[in-house]
Design goal:
binds biliverdine IX alpha; 34% helix; single chain; elongated; seven-stranded antiparallel sheet; alpha+beta; 15 helices
């Protein structure tokens, strides 16, 4: 049988979601060419929304639809100053009479892309309105000490701003699966808090795009998409790239997913940490379709960006007591090392402290061919074989895994002592290592539906993956894993290396002085 592990690319990874050739029907897209902003592509719905046949507009300069003042406003919009936080109010020529729209404009791949959305009926308050929308949330952000506090503020605030039935923070795990870490919702809805979702729910092309474009809205999952005419950008002779378009038609696979989930409208906002996609604010409406005006979306996007900037500093505050405790152990070890002259003996005499340093249950010290163990560890031969096997995988002095039996099957024999392994390489050439171990801890993970999706193998050997139909809680029992090594624990191991090197240097200079 073919499993997801022996095919490289699935339909999900190959889909070019930025060039769907169509848009969602709640607005109009015009692509325009300089110098006179000639209409070179448009969405077919100009016919029912403006009363013009596509051929009547193609090739015409934009002044066929807008007066010169409005064209100037569009050009201003392209300059990307504060004004572009607001949509451009436009009165667009149409039959039988002109109609109001929100204009949203950007420049991409040589063309000006102007999108027209339903007018948002805001008074012309400009920047102060945006300020009013976001000011309170920013004040609340400043009061949050920890990441969970920050997350719970943003879900509440975005729900208030938009009126979605459910707003969640979805955080990616290291393997690109993810789980819901905060939620604000209508009381009667079933909670999703704590549920896990597999990586393929948000495949690579989507994760890449969401790093560039921070917000997408799907006002009605039952929409009929509207084709662009012609399909190709005349400058590139390729389908128009809608990476930065607000009306981009969404992947049909994802539409099916949302329908299976019982969602009628959705919006999501990217959360980035150090230029990586860290998570999403995911919003659902389950009672009806739901449109969110551009300036509210811009306020939400801005709040997402402010939150993104705070993730690192708030994470540093999480678990603060534990981090202080670890640092304390660290400094006790450093001071023992600085007042002694026999490395192996100091390390052995540290006993519990060496375990506490990274919260391990076993430790092995391998210095100059000598192996000494403390606590729950594999036996000597097992450890020596393990070192041989693992040493090439050490990068930057550290190797760690919370599922050793998966990368090293012989570890099945000692999973109760070493399902988790943290290795510190002290010197490469002389092969000096410290290894810490953690036992298997059987954990259960609650998935939203069975994460192994329905698949189909195609004639070319590729795999087509379908969205699952049921999202009912599905419990997985995870074996052969230890508790994960936390960043602060790994850092502590790194620092031990500096202390040991200091020890060695001090000893070397003492010996040198003795001899001279
Ligand atoms: C996109 N998948 C998405 C998005 C989310 C999720 C948030 C962004 C678009 C949006 O805002 O809706 C997934 N939504 C979730 C998850 C939760 C949620 C995990 O609310 C948890 C609470 N999906 C599949 C399969 C494929 C797939 C099998 O199940 C691929 C074959 C694809 N998901 C898929 C694609 C997109 C997507 C292609 C991009 C949609 C687009 O932007 O065009």
């Amino acid at each position: 049988t073919v499993t997801a592990t022996n095919v490289d690319l699935t339909n999900c990874d190959r889909e070019q979601i930025e060039i769907p050739g169509s848009i969602q029907p709640h607005g109009i897209l015009l692509s325009l060419q300089e110098p006179d902003l000639k209409i070179v592509q448009l969405s077919r719905n100009v016919e029912n929304l403006l009363g013009f046949l596509p051929d009547e507009l193609l090739g015409k300069p934009l002044d066929y639809l807008l007066n010169s003042e409005q064209i100037e406003a569009v050009r201003q919009g392209l300059s990307g100053n504060f004004e572009s936080l607001n949509p451009i109010p436009l009165s667009v020529q149409s039959r039988p009479q002109a109609q109001l729209f929100d204009g949203i404009v950007h420049y991409y791949q040589g063309l000006v892309i102007l999108e027209l959305e339903p007018p948002s009926h805001q008074d012309d308050e400009g920047f102060p309105y945006f300020y009013r929308l976001t000011k309170r949330t920013i004040t609340l952000f400043q009061q949050a000490q920890t990441l969970p506090e920050l997350c719970s503020i943003i879900v509440g605030e975005i729900r208030q701003l938009t009126g979605f039935d459910r707003v969640m923070i979805y955080k990616f795990n290291e393997d690109d699966s993810g789980h819901v870490i905060a939620e604000d919702k209508l009381e009667e809805l079933e909670p999703y808090l704590g549920l896990h979702y597999p990586a393929t729910d948000i495949p690579l092309p989507a994760r890449k795009l969401y790093k560039l474009n921070y917000l997408r809205l799907i006002p009605d999952v039952n929409y009929q998409s509207v084709a662009l005419i012609p399909e190709n950008n005349p400058l590139t002779q390729k389908p128009l790239d809608l990476s930065f378009s607000v009306l981009r038609s969404v992947s049909p696979i994802h539409m099916e997913y949302l329908k299976n989930m019982g969602v009628k409208a959705a919006m999501s906002i990217s959360l980035l940490k150090e230029n990586k996609l860290w998570g999403l604010v995911a919003c659902h409406h389950e009672s009806s379709a739901k449109y969110v005006p551009y300036e509210i979306r811009t306020a939400c996007e801005f709040l997402g960006q402010v939150m993104s900037l705070q993730i690192i500093s708030k994470e540093q505050n999480d678990n603060l007591d534990y981090k202080i405790y670890l640092k304390n152990i660290q400094s006790q070890i450093t001071s023992s090392l600085s007042s002694s002259d026999d490395l192996l003996n100091v390390l052995l005499n540290l006993e519990d402290k060496l375990l506490q340093l990274v919260n391990a249950t076993g430790v092995a010290i391998y210095l100059e061919g000598d192996l000494k163990c403390r606590g729950q560890t594999p036996n000597e031969d097992e450890i020596k074989n393990l070192i041989d096997r693992i040493k090439l995988q050490i990068h930057g002095s550290i190797y760690h895994t919370d599922s050793l039996p998966k990368v090293y099957p012989s570890a099945l024999n000692f999973k109760d002592r070493a399902s988790g392994l943290l290795v510190l390489e002290i010197t490469k050439l002389q092969a000096n290592y410290i290894l810490w171990f953690r036992p298997e801890v059987i954990q259960s993970v609650n998935w939203a539906g069975n994460p192994d999706k329905p698949t189909q193998i195609e004639a070319d050997g590729s795999l087509t993956v379908f969205p699952r139909k049921s999202f009912n809680k599905w419990q997985e029992t995870v074996r052969l894993k230890s508790l994960p090594w936390q960043d602060c624990e790994i850092e502590n191991a790194q620092e031990l290396k500096s202390s040991i090197i200091n020890f060695v240097l001090r000893r070397a200079s003492e010996l040198f002085e003795l001899n001279s």
